[in-house]
Amino acid sequence: MTDVLLNKVSVCVITGPTRGLGRSMAHQFSRKLPKGSLFILLSRNQPLLDSAADMVLENEGIRAVTGILDQQGSDQGVFDNILQDCLARAKADVAEFEQAILVNNAGSLEPLEFVRDLDNVNIISSYFNTNLTGCIALTSKFLQIFKSSILKSRVIINISSLAAISPMKSWLLYCMAKSARDIMMKVVAEEEENIRTLNYAPGPLVTDMTDIACQNTKDMDLRHWFEEQVRKKSLVECDASVQKLVTILQQNTFENGAHMDYFDEIN
């Protein structure tokens, strides 16, 4: 019998929970997890964080605390302290939880340039700071604080993309970052005890990122594909994608470190 992941009293850390997929995950996970669970919501925008926290707190017995985190930033002290600070403000102790969950959701899309035009080292460095460096550092602190010796169930969900496994013209940096984050989950699954890791590609979503893809993708074929999906209203709604993710987590039959897509069939 598989272990149901969303039935345990959990501390659930979500990056980028203020809009789109991240907000939907905060909403649906807070309705699934048992009373006593704590949500740590991390983003750059305090008013939007407050709104997301209020939504989570609508569920009886669920707690929420927010923290300002800019994954592009290089302030070591922020990464060293943010999770501990949030636990302290929530008056929570690691040992009171049955499970810890980290959702690496925050990320960016642009610049959407052909490789031949990606010659600005500052832009490249800034992109990878946001989409890789900060993600790795936060994941490391999560593993340090929520140790396998204390918690017998730990879960890390990386929000991935088809771009992690399929090249997309003029999307090099996005493809590289998503691919790198996928392999990180596989490495973590090999290194750590008491952990389940999953790369979840949520499908082409109805989000601000899709608008950016339609407007700024340099490859015309890919841009037109997105424009056509918008025209046909065939994009995936965030809530539907998260419902699929919830099902995957509840069934808990995926291979550790697996890459799973919204369109994959599950039993």
TrEMBL record:
It comes from the Eukaryota. The keyword Oxidoreductase applies. The keyword Cytoplasm applies. GO terms for cellular component: cytoplasm. It is found in: Cytoplasm. Keywords: Cytoplasm, NADP, Oxidoreductase. GO terms for molecular function: sepiapterin reductase (NADP+) activity. GO terms for biological process: tetrahydrobiopterin biosynthetic process. This is Sepiapterin reductase.
